[in-house]
Amino acid sequence: MRSIRRKNFTVFMLPSLIALLLVLAIPLGYSLITSFFNTNLKYQGLGDFVGLSNYASVLQDEYFIESVVTTAKFTVGVVVVEFLAGLAIALLLNNIRKGRNFFFTIIIVPMMITPIAVGLIWRLLLHANLGIVNYMLSLVGISGQAWLADSSLALKTVMFIDVWQNVPYMVLVILAGLVTLPAEPYEAAAIDGASRTQSFFRLTVPMMLPTFSVVLLLRTITALKTYDLIFVLTRGGPGTSTEVISYHIYQQAFRYLEIGKASAMSYLLLLLIIPIAFLFVRISRNRTA
Amino acid sequence: MGLTYVALTLITLFFLLPLLWILRTSLITKVEAYKIPPNWMAEVTLDNYISIFTDNPFGSYFLNSFFIALVSTLISVLLGAMSSYWICRCARHNGRLKVAILVTQMIPPVVMIIPLSLVIKSLGLDDTYFALIMAYLSFNLPYVIWMLLSHFEAIPRELDDACAVDGCTHVQAYFRVVLPLVMPGIMATAVYSFIVCWNEFMFALNLTGLNTRTIPVAIASLDTQQGVMIAELCASTIVAILPVIFLTVFIKKYLVQGLTFGSVK
Q: What fold is seen in the domain A55-288?
């Protein structure tokens, strides 16, 4: 019996384990090690062991702190706006039967396409001189802006584009939750004379809380990882006005070749994300159990 | 009711019009594409599509993307489905293992690319299909394992036992009886993994070169290397997103599960 079990393990589990060890565990371990060394790609090898000094210097680095603040602004902004807009659109879609599928099918498209394409599309639309958006605005007498080149506007513009891409995600998941809500409580509430607002806050919100927490947590995690959109739209600029953590870390590693510091930043980012991930795991387990 | 439809139409236009504008720009001549105010009567032409496939090696970028996404997905599904089945049936106290698998999905790509890039470049494997296919396993494989767990759990154990009584080995039971039953779940997961690979940018940016460049890297560099070639850029963007839109139709039913790691059904 034992040997059968072992044989099964070899056939079913070992190939995956080896693959995961090679592409996931070893790289993560390697990164952790380099975070304690002053590894720099300009020199051969790991460099010298420096203990926690990478972490200390990163936490005092004003550019890193600034990228954390930018990421926080970006994440809070897009998650809140996307959630509220997604909820509103999902409620509208839930109200209708005829044509729901038609609207829904079109609305979810932006979410599926690569952020690189999304970024390129909006760069063309928002181009200061050649873009259609500024032209349309000029027709109604609003003067166009250098949406992505103006450091006071760039972050807001990037956030707007992210909203365009990711509201569909919220619509998709929230609508999936809404359609499974039972009808009886609403009928009972209507008989008792509850208004639509009352039944929304007293019935829909409490019943939808698990779905809300899932989308909010997952979107927060993906927003914290944002890189592609920034790469195409602004490369972190103008100045450092749109430099989010992922972009900052990538630059540290591959432009300034400071692998040790970049690894320390990576682990700090993980430290930020892992608690949110565990919160998500806990909630989703309660749901499936 | 009427107001709901008006609102939904406006909202849908907000999401649709940018895409239609890019489609329109991809179908007019290079000169027309630069015109502001736009010439609404511009002639329709397929020149830009022809030009990206002839002047640019865009065809080979397309094939690179397709090949890398397909092979990485196939490996993930082959290995991942077997592991998922094993974890479901044979692993005792598998709770922690499951959590670990799910948490890997939350790791930011920038955290992975630094060590992956160092290892791959020190082995001289950058600009090979192998490198990117392996790198994509780092998120694809755990994803497949995780997503298929609930599908295997839905299949009663008695079925395996019945096979054992008939003298089947575990491997035979898996391939002949269990696997066909979870096929719909496997297909949906595979299509979703394929889309994620097709769209992936950061790993591809770092690990590909002239021979293995994928579409997202190609269109991002089209934009920087030759100034803004608006019409061609739009045509390339359309080519990059069409397969995804096409595939999404097939997995629409599974999208919610796929995008929430099964926590919303």
A: MetI-like fold (1.10.3720)
Report chain A residues whose CB lies below 8 A from the CB of B167: none
> Is the ipTM beyond the 0.95 threshold?
no
Q: What is the pLDDT of residues B163-220, one digit of tens each?
A: 888 888 888 888 888 999 999 999 999 999 999 999 999 999 999 998 999 999 999 8
**Buried (b) or exposed (e) across A144-172, using 16+ Cβ within 10 A?**
bbbbbeeeebbbbbbbbbbbbbbbbbbbb
Contact (Cβ atoms closer than 8 angstroms) between residue B22 and residue B238: yes
CATH number of the structural domain spanning residue B122 = 1.10.3720.10
B161, containing H or E segment: helix B157-165
Name the nearest CA neighbour of A263 among A19, A14, A39: A39
Cβ-defined contact of B262 to A231 (cutoff 8 Å): no
pTM of the shown model? 0.94
**Assigned token pair, A95:** 């109200």
Residue B119 is given by DSSP the state: H
Measure the CA–CA gap between B204 and B188, rounded to whole angstroms.
24
Residue carrying the six token digits 């090898």: A45
Q: Provide, as residue numbers in chain A, all residues whose Cβ is less than 8 Å from the Cβ of B23.
A: none
Residues of B in contact with A231 (CB under 8 A): 201, 205, 220
A53-66: string of b/e by CB count within 10 Å (b at 16+)? ebbebbeeeeebee
Q: Are residues B31 and B123 in the same domain?
A: no
* Residue B16: closest C-alpha in chain A: A106
Could you please report the per-residue DSSP string of A147-190? TTTSTTTHHHHHHHHHHHHHHHHHHHHHHHHHTTS-SHHHHHHH
Q: Which residue of B has its CA nearest to A225?
A: B108
Q: What is the domain extent for residue B221?
A: 57-259
Any B CB within 8 A of A209 CB: no
User: Can you read off the two tokens belonging to residue B177?
Assistant: 């009886």
